[in-house]
Specification:
single chain; alpha/beta; Spore Coat Polysaccharide Biosynthesis Protein SpsA, Chain A; three-stranded mixed beta sheet; 12 helices; 43% helix
């Protein structure tokens, strides 16, 4: 256990109708080996008993706030406004961290001021899966230490051919980076974390990958998550987010890898949202063409769907898959 003070870590947890997970999540965080933490629960006007459970957990290290329903991004900003920590750990209520995650990331950042700490993650669905060893997917090609934050972000977004994802809980952020880059964008979007962390990454002096610790990320489509239930407005915001990320990076670099990464971003969006959002798909496809770079088509389904994609094109494959659901 860390036995000397290295700064307070504020753990900010937005909550909306997650009563089933809340108590276990908070108890797990209180078992972190780094003792200097405050947990800030922000209830986004839940309609179940999440707020009552949160209030029952209030203690010296646990504060509970409530706001009018405005979405997870605004809830995180509400938590930021109340936070007093030197470091910020954002946390989804249905996920878990290895017990020494925060301790090891704080120690790493003590050696690399101005940088951003990250760790690998493991996907799971049911809590029982955590009782036995889970083999982590290989993530070294997109989660690594780097002194070039722009290059790291371009790689993450698809410069090497495949766009990847680093889940929110993986990061530990020195508070000055948030003060420099700004808080969460005030919108509801499945990729609000992608927009936020693009700014944070670019504001940093580099990325510190800390091995041997894990973020356990619950991929549960039954959960009440915006990313699992996007509407048309949310899909517009996803396209807006791609535009924003491109703008952030273009102001820093202008090279072939940047265009390659965003060719992949726009093409994936165009294909994945066709035919249910034809107008948005067409806009994204036009933006893909302006990148003037080839991008690999995403996997659309099983053997038959892939054969149709290869013979008749991705639109025919998407139409068949959409109308044969």
């Amino acid at each position: 256990m860390a036995n000397h003070y290295q700064g307070l870590v504020s753990i900010i947890m937005p909550v909306y109708n997650t009563a089933a997970f809340l108590q276990k999540s908070v108890q797990s965080l209180l078992q972190q080996t780094y003792p200097h933490i405050e947990i800030i629960i922000v209830d986004d006007s839940s309609t179940d008993n999440s707020y009552a459970i949160a209030q029952s957990l209030a203690a010296e290290k646990v504060r509970v706030l409530q706001q009018p329903n405005a979405g997870a991004a605004i809830a995180r900003n509400t938590g930021l406004a109340a936070a007093t920590g030197d470091y910020i750990q954002f946390m989804d209520v249905d996920d878990f961290l290895s017990p020494d995650k925060i301790e090891k990331q704080v120690a790493a950042l003590q050696q690399r001021p101005g940088c951003l700490a990250v760790c690998n993650y493991i996907n799971f669905v049911l809590d029982e899966e955590l009782d036995k060893p889970i083999k982590a997917e290989e993530q070294g090609h997109f989660i690594y230490s780097s002194n070039n934050s722009a290059s790291f972000l371009i790689d993450l977004l698809g410069a090497k051919g495949e766009s990847n994802f680093i889940q929110t809980n993986c990061w530990l952020i020195p508070r000055p980076l948030i003060e420099k880059a700004g808080g969460w964008r005030a919108y509801r979007c499945p990729d609000d974390d992608g927009e936020f962390f693009s700014r944070i990454i670019l504001a940093s002096e580099g990325i510190v990958h800390v091995p041997g610790i894990t973020n356990y990320y619950r991929r549960d489509k039954r959960a009440n998550k915006l990313s699992a239930h996007p509407g048309n407005k949310y899909l517009q915001n996803v396209l807006l987010t791609i535009d924003l990320k491109y703008g952030y990076l273009k102001s820093r670099v202008e090279d072939d890898l940047l265009r390659k990464a965003f060719a992949k971003q726009y093409l994936d969006y165009a294909i994945n949202h066709y035919p249910q959002c034809k107008k948005l798909s067409a806009i994204a496809y036009r933006r893909f063409k302006t990148m003037n770079r080839k991008a690999e088509l995403p996997l659309l389904g099983g053997r038959m769907i892939e054969a149709i994609k290869n013979i008749l094109g991705w639109k025919a494959a998407r139409l068949l898959k959409y109308y044969c659901r």
